[in-house]
Amino acid sequence: MQHQHSGTNREKPTLTLSQGAPVYDTANSETLGPKGPVLLQDVQFIEKMAHFDRERIPERVVHAKGSGAFGVFVPCRSMSEYTCAAFLQNPGEPTRFLIRFSTVIGSKGSADTARDPRGFAVKFYTSEGNYDVVGLSLPVFFIRDAIKFPDFIHSQKPDPCTNLQNYNHIWDFFSLSPESLHQITWLYSDRGIVKDFARMDGFGVNTFIWVNREGKRHYVKYHFLCQEEMDHIDRKEGKRLAGLDPDMAVRALHDRLARGCPIRYEFNVQLMDPERAKELDFDPLDDTKTWPEDLFPLIKVGMLTVNENPSNFFTQIEQAAFCPANIVPGIEFSADKMLQGRIFSYTDTQRYRIGANFAQLPVNRPAFCPHNHQQDGEMAYSNPPGNINYKPNSLDGNAPVEAPAPCYPGMSYPGGCVTRQPVRPTDDFSQARARYLSLCNAEKERMADAIGWELAQADQKIQIRQLDLFAKVCPDLANRVSREIYLFSSRQKD
Ligand code: HEM
Q1: Mean pLDDT for the chain?
Q2: Is the pLDDT assigned to residue 231 strictly greater than 90?
Q3: Could you identify the atom of ligand 1 that is nearest to the CA of residue 61?
Q4: How many domains does the chain divide into?
Q5: Which residue of 115, 234, 261, 420 shows the fewest CB atoms closer than 10 Å?
């Protein structure tokens, strides 16, 4: 039933509290007489202020400053030869995406024209779930093992004593980490400062695996090539613009899309047969390396068109959760040690930054309703329906059913194939039998009583299933429990 005051009066909605009660004065707090103190009972004041007091969430631990938009990806060819990912099968079939651009080191209010790689994070809302490419404007990274990432970032972020960026720390770390040299030649080149996200490329940097329906795998690297002339500025110009308009890249993105002028990136991949990796004089899974384009030419996959500003920055951009762990069938993780570490870190920080149920937010949800038994936690909004919240279950037909496993084996490594196997040998009965037989008669009775009392309250088909298992442990156990169930069910015992 519509509340008397909550309806929109045709022209403008009525101002209300969050629970719907109407607010008739939001500019004057309630006082005892016109000059008296403000009253604790002024719930309008308290709600307004208390909600305001909680408006901020932690900024991203890196890539805090940025902006984003929505767009559409359209493949120009089928990539079925290389991957069975659904969104890459059919030329012309569009997939909506969210893209976020960012600087890495500065905090939320920092200037856009710092020398820094730019984040280039794309979330494809595919028919098989979200696929995130969380990349950079430069093709390589500073380190090659995720375990060094906190040290690297500490050396770049403000000094813990002065809270100022410390070039002694930055170069201390670099000079002790020669793997950063290649990235330094990118970062300190003209490409290191960007003032317009439309005029820079994006790279996946890490190596993923594409696998086709026959199980044939390729290593893959992503390139998103901007369709406008690259535009880079030097150190002095960057500093000048930081003073003039610290938000200039964010502004350029917003204003341009608001004018109806989209940004386009050509999506290309480099593919490598893993066998070829052995012939190379560098490790293709090392993210401080690029792959020579004469040996591994760019293959055009399609076009990304960024064309829609967010309708709300906080809900759609600040709370957006990109993560390299979000993959879809046909795409796998390579053993790239940076990628392996990143797979853990992003959702870990998002559970802290946004909350346990961050995946329920509209911007982070897949294009269809996900089905699993995850429930509750802070701000749970859409718990799974029904009361069967576990697997295996027989009470809900074991729903939701597991998807069919790939018909090809997992990636092969010297230690074996990547696989999901039960622990073997199982033998669920021998030790249970020995334990049962070691009990004295009185304890066997008490055990049968305890189990029988609970099982008497379960469905008959469940009782039968459990008694079959007990019979395999020891027929005596099954008989005793069966008798107890009968006594409890027929109310000869309570
Ligand atoms: C092991 C190394 C790395 C770790 C542990 C790491 C960790 C993180 C974390 C914790 C965030 C914040 C996420 C959030 O709060 O939502 C983040 C953001 C980001 N990282 Fe990394 N990162 C690593 C390396 C890289 C590399 C190599 C790239 C590029 C290929 C990259 C690109 C990004 C981007 C683009 C974002 C911002 C995503 C957004 O726009 O929300 N990171 N990273």
Answers
A1: 96
A2: no
A3: 12
A4: 3
A5: 420
Q: Based on the fold, state whether residues 17 and 100 are members of the same structural domain.
A: no
pLDDT in tens, 101-149: 999 999 999 999 999 999 999 999 999 999 999 999 999 999 999 999 9
Q: What is the band of 4 on the pLDDT scale with cuts at 50, 70, 90?
A: very low
The whole-number average pLDDT for the span 246-260 is 98
Q: What is the CA radius of gyration of the chain?
A: 30
| pLDDT tens for each residue of 68-79 | 999 999 999 999
Q: Tell me how many degrees the CA angle 150-151-153 measures, rounded to the nearest 5.
A: 65
Please identify, among 338, 360, 382, the residue that sits at the C-terminal boundary of a domain.
360
Centre of ligand 1 to C-alpha 326, Å, is 13
Instruction: Judge whether 378 lies within some domain.
Output: no
Q: What CATH number is given to the structural domain containing 356?
A: 2.40.180.10
Kindly report the protein residue whose alpha carbon is nearest to atom 6 of ligand 1.
342
Write out the residue range of the structural domain in which residue 458 sits.
Answer: 430-489
Ligand 1: atom nearest CA of 101 is 40
Pocket test for ligand 1, best of 61, 97, 134 (most atoms within 8 A of CB): 134
259 pLDDT more than 60 = yes
Is 44 in the same domain as 132? Answer: no
Kindly tell me the burial class for residue 130, based on how many C-beta atoms sit within 10 Å of its own C-beta (0-12, 13-18, 19 or more): buried
317 in contact with ligand 1, CB cutoff 6 A: no
Q: 131 and 17, same structural domain? A: no
- 202 close to ligand 1 (CB < 6 Angstrom): no
Per residue, the 3-state secondary structure of 52-97, as one string, reads HHCCCCCCCCCCCCEEEEEEEEEECCCCCCCCCCHHHCCCCCCEEE
Give the CA-trace dihedral at 307, 308, 314, 320, to 10 degrees. -60
Q: Ligand 1 centre from 119 Cα, in Å?
A: 8
Strand runs labelled E in 289-414: 299-308, 331-333, 412-413
Is the domain of 41 the same as that of 90? Answer: no
Q: What is the CATH number of the domain that holds 34?
A: 4.10.91.20
For residue 139 and ligand 1, the question of a CB distance below 6 A is answered with: no
Q: How far is the CA of 297 from the centre of ligand 1 (A)?
A: 27
Q: Is the CB–ligand 1 distance for residue 119 below 6 Å?
A: yes
- Of 322, 343, 360, the last residue of a domain is 360
Q: Does residue 397 fall inside a structural domain?
A: no
